[in-house]
Amino acid sequence: MLNVKTTQGQSVPVHKRTSGNLSRILKYTLVRGTTLLITVVIGVYLAILIANGGGYVDEMRKGQIAEQVSLELAGNPEMQFLTLQERRELEDSMRQTRIEQLGLHRPFMVRSFEYLWDGLTLNLGSAEYLLSDSGSRQVRNILKERLAPTLLLMATGQLILFFSGVSIALFLSRRYGSFWDRLVIAMAPTSSAPAWFYGIFLILIFAALLGWLPFGGMIDAPPPKTTLLRFLSILKHMILPVLALVISSIFSTSYSWRTFFLIYSSEDYVDMAKAKGLSDRAIERRYVLRPTLPTIITSFALTLITLWTGAIVLETVFAWPGIGRLTQQAINLFDTPVIVATVVIYAYLLALTVFLLDIIYSLVDPRVKLGGGGTRS
Fold this sequence. Notes:
Elements: E1 3-5, E2 11-13, H1 14-51, H2 56-74, H3 84-101, H4 108-120, H5 139-174, H6 179-187, H7 195-209, H8 227-265, H9 268-275, H10 280-309, H11 311-317, H12 323-333, H13 336-364
Antiparallel strand pairs: 1-2
Helix pairs in contact: 1-4, 1-13, 2-3, 5-8, 5-10, 6-8, 7-8, 7-11, 8-10, 9-10, 10-13, 11-12, 12-13
C-alpha cells in the first residue's frame, strides 16, 4: 500500500489522506455556505422591513383599497336605492373583504416572516404595478426576463476587465518607469468615478455627437428577424456599457496589480530562475503570476462586488433591461414584491460570488487550508 509521510514523520495511507482532504473540503463548504446563507437571510429580512417601511406601505395599500372601493360604489347606479347607512356598511364590508384577501388584517411582524420565506424562495406572487415583456404580473416571470441581460452584461465586462488588467499589469511590470507606466499611474485616480459616470460621457460622444452607437437598450426596435442579426444587434448595444465598466476600473486595477508583479519579480527565486536560463515568459508564468494570483483574486473580488452594486444606476443610464433597471423602476412605483425579489437576487449573486472566490482562493494559495487541517487539500 502506498504511504505518504505527514509533517510529524508518520506514514499515512494515500486513501486515508485523500479521505481526510475530502472531509475537510466538505466541512469548509458546509460552514462557509451556512454562514453566507445566514447573512443573506438577515439582509433580505432587513430589506423587507425597509421596503415596507415597517408596515407603512401596507397602510398605503389599505388606503388605496378604500379609495378603489369608494370609486366603484360611486359609479354603481344601484347605490341610489340604498340609505347612507347601508352604503357605509357595504363599503366597509367590501373594503374589509379585500384587506383580508391580501392578508393585510394580520400584524405586519407576523407577515414579515412569511414575506421572508416567500422572498428566499422567490415565491412572491404578482407584482403590483410592473409587467413582464410578455404581459405577465408574476414576479418570477419578470425576474427571468431581467436576470439574463444583467448576467450577460456584467460577466462580459468583468471577464474583459480581468484579462485586460492582468495583461496590462504584466506589460507595465516589464517597463517600470516608462511613459506607459507613468501614464497609468497618473490615470489611476480616475477610477474613483463609477461606471455610470463614464457611461454618460460615452453616450454623449459616441451616440449623440458621432452617432456610431445606440443611446441605450439591448436590441434594435423592431428586433432583427435572424439569429445572427439579433446577436450583432445585442453586441452593438453592449459596447458602451461594457466600455464604461472597463474604463471605471482598468487604471486602478492595472496599477495595483502591476505593483504586485513588481514586488514578486524582485524575489530571490526569480533571480535564481533567470540564472538557470529560463525564458521571461516562463518566469512570469511560474514565479511571478502564480504566487500573485491570491492577491489579484482578492483585489478582483472587491472590484466585482462594487460592479454588482453599481449595476442599478448603470443599467438605468443605458436603459439596459436588467435587474438593476428593474430595481429602480420598482422603487419608483413602490412595488414591494419586485423590490424584495431584486434584493434577494442581488443577495444570492453576491453570496455566490464570495463563496466561489473563497473556494478559488483556497485552491490557488497553498497557505490556505480548507477546514483548518494540517494538510492542504
